[in-house]
Amino acid sequence: AQTDAIAVADEPARTTDGTHIVVAANLSSVADAVTARQVGADAAGLIRTEFLFLGRMEPPTVDEQEAAYRSIAETFQGRRITFRTLDIGADKPLSYVATAAEANPFLGLRGIRLALARPKLLHDQLDAIARVASDHPVDLMFPMVSTVDELTTALAAVTRAQGLRVGVMVEVPSAALNARALAPHVDFFSIGTNDLTQYTLAAERGNAAVAGLADPYDPAVLRLIDCVTRAAGDRIDVAVCGELAADELAVPLLVGLGVRELSVAAAAIPLVKQAVRRVDMAAATALAQRALQQSSARAVRGLCGRL
Ligand code: PEP
Ligand code: MG
After folding, report:
1. How many whole angstroms separate alpha carbon 94 and alpha carbon 37?
2. Model confidence over 177-196: pLDDT tens digits?
3. Which of 54, 175, 264, 292 has a CA positioned 20 to 30 A from the CA of residue 230?
């Protein structure tokens, strides 16, 4: 019975005109992979590998990482899985990585910045991922990239196993604005709307006092997403893996902006697939164009609610 339930949940999500939108899962543990498959995840669009590194006294070994990554790959049975390299620092410090105190941790040594400053951590992780990529379809992406130089430095450390695709998260406004310059180096973009919103509106995520400002429906955020899909053209796949992708109302808007993969928490997968099946591409494209012309998040939400 469970196999039947998975078979139904596994039906691909297509818009009314037949465009396939990949509905993928965000994972923060090996156990999450099992749950995600049970609800029909087409892929794993964001594996937050920090789970292996946090709450311990020393970094996981390459073998330990390989075992965890392999277990996720096996659960996904040949479906694409996307490892994000370590995204720590700032609010997620590691006891075994000494860093100076920072006045503005979200603007400090985090994500790819920390990984490049501590190459052994990054290289071990890339080794473990490469081992799994030798016999599973694996995507790799880097978090918090703000310049082309950071991306090319990180890419220089990657062993290009066959079938390994590389991508970059777009979650800093400079990365969205420079998407055309990043594009030649990658196979895909994955937009992290949580951080992208925080940095675009200069409103700290999770800070209740500015929660009203940190709205991913803000036209400024949408214009940055539009920059990315335009720069991607037909060659590069664009995913959204921030919370916005799990919002039913945002699904037509994101698809209309050219996004072709939505990566969300497992619990949201069935609803997001249903929302995709209701999307009429012509209406979604028109909605996105109108949304880009609005002057407030409230106005954009109004448009989305009416569709
Ligand atoms: C994001 O910033 O949107 C994202 C998906 O990454 P995280 O939430 O892990 O920072
Ligand atoms: Mg992020």
Report:
1. 30
2. 999 999 999 999 999 999 99
3. 264
